[in-house]
TrEMBL record:
The lineage of its organism: Bacteria, Bacillati, Actinomycetota, Actinomycetes, Kitasatosporales. This is LysR family transcriptional regulator. It comes from the Bacteria.
Length: 55
């Protein structure tokens, strides 16, 4: 896990160990198909238009 994940998904019963090589991780949007609506499709379209970003 990277520092971003450790910060925002922390749990008291889990210890995150940082990677020393600092690999680039890829994240993406996911959702249940039964929850898809116009708002989800719009958010996904905005993400496609903005493209990738390196954190």
């Amino acid at each position: 896990m990277n520092a971003h994940a450790a910060r925002f998904m922390s749990r008291p019963d889990i210890t995150y160990v940082p990677f020393r090589e600092d690999p680039q991780l890829r994240w993406g949007l996911v959702w249940r198909t039964e929850a898809e609506d116009a708002r989800i499709r719009t958010l996904a379209q905005v993400g496609r238009e903005l493209g990738t970003v390196t954190l």
